[in-house]
Design goal:
53 residues, 1 helix
């Protein structure tokens, strides 16, 4: 199967905008993960670390 679709060339401005958007999404995702972890630890309390394995 050959790919005969025309390719799209992005300008430098479009590539920079895409990179900034990707970094912003990554930072938001990382912040969400940190908040989710913090809320989980707060809800479970500090005794979750002192349980027997």
């Amino acid at each position: 199967m050959s790919d005969n679709r025309p390719s799209i060339e992005l300008t430098d401005a479009q590539q920079k905008a895409r990179r900034k958007r990707s970094i912003a999404i990554a930072l938001c995702l990382a912040a969400f993960v940190v908040i989710f972890y913090a809320v989980t630890v707060i809800k479970l309390g500090p005794d979750v670390l002192n349980r027997p394995l």
